[in-house]
């Protein structure tokens, strides 16, 4: 059963899911949220700066792949070491649960829902929080995820499970036959440890819980669990990758919240000072 023909199909599904998630998470018109997002980009330099920084850090992942392809003299491979620790965990899990419907659902979550959850989080926090504290926390946390993970991809390469263990199938190809030519440019074959799908999913779940939006917190937590199961089931990541990703996600979300809180406090103090100066100026004018 083919779910994705190309990246255009992925983009269409992602757009539809983002619209649905914005409605579910914010209980508001998704297009109104989109309009508010564009307004913030146009009127707030701080908001725009954080969004541009977030896009830049995501682009850095592509730069990392380009640099890695030129590191021909560095041939270290830690995959065999990882498998010697874990044995056949992924293989056993995949063979136990393999089913056409399960493959269909988990592939959709891995490719579409995962990225839609990130996009929707930005929209929901922009709409619900006047201080934009959770929006900034999300930006910081995602940037931390990539900045911490990329050095590991350079110097601690671990191949995906299916590429190393012949007893594991890459089930993604059952629903996305052109994955290697269409999607692979976004993720290196040996960029396994830590698992960014795990770390970012955990990050979004923790931030959703901290946001106080119970509906969104439940959804993100369930999706994080589904993504973690999917990375094994589809034959992509090792157990070690998941553990590293969970630790990174907890670290990134915690640090992201602290930086955002500090930034919100400083911006609030700055506004108070400006208002104070304006008040004094008005009194002097009288």
Automatic annotation (TrEMBL):
Q: Name one Pfam family in it.
A: PAP2_3
Which spans of this chain does the record mark as coiled coil?
none
Top-level taxon of origin: Bacteria
What InterPro entries does the record tag this protein with? Aur1/Ipt1, PAP2/HPO_sf
Query: Which regions span the lipid bilayer?
Result: 6-26, 47-67, 101-127, 134-156, 216-236, 242-266
Q: Which UniProt keywords apply?
A: Membrane, Transmembrane, Transmembrane helix
Q: Which residues form the Inositolphosphotransferase Aur1/Ipt1 domain?
A: 93-252
Provide the protein name.
Answer: Phosphatase PAP2 family protein
Q: Which organism is it from?
A: Paenibacillus spongiae
The root-end lineage is: Bacteria, Bacillati, Bacillota, Bacilli, Bacillales
């Amino acid at each position: 059963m083919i779910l994705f023909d190309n990246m255009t199909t992925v983009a269409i599904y992602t757009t539809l899911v983002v619209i649905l998630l914005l409605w579910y998470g914010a209980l508001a018109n998704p297009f109104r949220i989109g309009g508010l997002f564009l307004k913030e980009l146009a009127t707030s330099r701080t908001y725009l700066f954080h969004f541009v920084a977030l896009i830049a850090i995501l682009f850095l992942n592509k730069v990392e792949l380009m640099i890695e392809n030129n590191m021909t003299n560095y041939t270290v491979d830690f995959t065999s070491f990882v498998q010697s620790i874990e044995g056949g965990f992924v293989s056993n899990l995949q063979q136990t649960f393999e089913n056409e419907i399960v493959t269909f659902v988990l592939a959709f979550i891995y490719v579409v829902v995962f990225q839609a959850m990130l996009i929707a989080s930005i929209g929901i926090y922009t709409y619900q929080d006047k201080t934009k504290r959770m929006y900034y926390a999300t930006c910081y946390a995602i940037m931390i995820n990539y900045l911490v993970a990329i050095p590991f991809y350079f110097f601690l390469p671990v191949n995906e499970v299916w590429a190393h263990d012949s007893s594991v199938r890459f089930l993604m190809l059952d629903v996305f036959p052109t994955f290697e030519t269409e999607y692979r440019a976004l993720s290196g074959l040996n960029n396994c440890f830590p698992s960014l799908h795990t770390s970012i999913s955990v990050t979004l779940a923790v931030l959703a819980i901290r946001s106080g939006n119970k509906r969104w917190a439940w959804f993100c937590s369930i999706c994080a669990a589904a993504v973690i199961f999917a990375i094994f089931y589809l034959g992509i990541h090792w157990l070690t990758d998941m553990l590293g990703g969970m630790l990174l996600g907890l670290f990134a979300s915690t640090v992201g919240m602290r930086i955002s809180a500090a930034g919100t406090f400083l911006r609030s103090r700055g506004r108070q000072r400006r208002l104070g100066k304006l008040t004094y100026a008005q009194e002097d004018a009288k």
